[in-house]
Design a protein that fits this description.
Oligomer: single chain
Order of helices and strands: EEEEEEHEEEEEE
Radius of gyration: 18 Å
Number of domains: 1
CATH superfamily: Lipid/polyisoprenoid-binding, YceI-like
Strand content: over 45%
Number of helices: 1
Distance between the termini: 15 Å
Number of strands: 12
CATH class: Mainly Beta
Low-confidence stretches: none
Shape: elongated
Structural class: mainly beta
CATH architecture: Beta Barrel
Largest sheet: 8 strands, antiparallel, barrel
Strand order of the largest sheet: 1-4-5-7-8-9-11-12
């Protein structure tokens, strides 16, 4: 079954250590996804495209720096892409989704832990599903190396980034069947 992402009820957020002792959080405001499941509602395909310029940490100057050549270089590389290459069941409605993440023209493998909720019928006659995904990556693997070492020896920007995705999707109308 093909699923259409519901962007009004979906988010891609991230967090990173700041100055070695605090956490900065942000999100990407614009993204698309292709999600498919098999006849038993098992996840079978995942792809995503993220508009790199839609990064938002709530601080205009920081966001401009993240869009610059020091980080995402959005003028040259306007998208981040994830292409799922392997989906492993990891318990009931749980998966490990591995794939290639492309940032600034560099593709590297990443893995996300995904928990999918059973589809339901929403009040508007649609079959709707939800999922949460979590993963970590080291930004240096994609050449995102800009940093400053602070007086105490900690890094201004942490190297490990945690991603949290909360997604809702609606079954494509022509394929929708009653959830049960």
């Amino acid at each position: 079954m093909n699923w259409n992402l519901d962007p009004a009820h979906s988010s891609i957020e991230f967090s990173v250590r700041h100055m070695g002792f605090a956490t900065v959080r942000g999100r990407f405001g614009r993204f698309t996804m292709t999600v498919e499941s098999d006849e038993l509602n098992r996840l079978s395909r995942v792809e995503a495209t993220i508009d790199a310029a839609s990064i938002d940490t709530g601080e205009d100057d920081r966001d401009a720096h993240l869009r610059s050549a020091d980080f995402l270089e959005v003028e040259r590389f306007p998208e981040l892409r994830f292409n799922g290459t392997r989906i492993e069941e990891n318990g009931r409605n749980r998966y490990r989704v591995s794939g290639d993440l492309t940032i600034r023209g560099t593709s590297k493998p990443v893995t996300f832990d995904v928990e999918v909720q059973e589809p339901i019928n929403d009040p508007f006659g649609n079959v709707r599903a939800a999922a949460e995904a979590r993963g970590k990556l080291n930004r240096k693997d994609w050449g995102l190396t800009w940093n400053q070492v602070l007086e105490a020896g900690s890094l201004l920007v942490g190297e490990e980034i945690t991603f949290m995705l909360d997604l809702q999707a609606v079954a494509a109308e022509k394929e929708a069947v009653a959830a049960g």
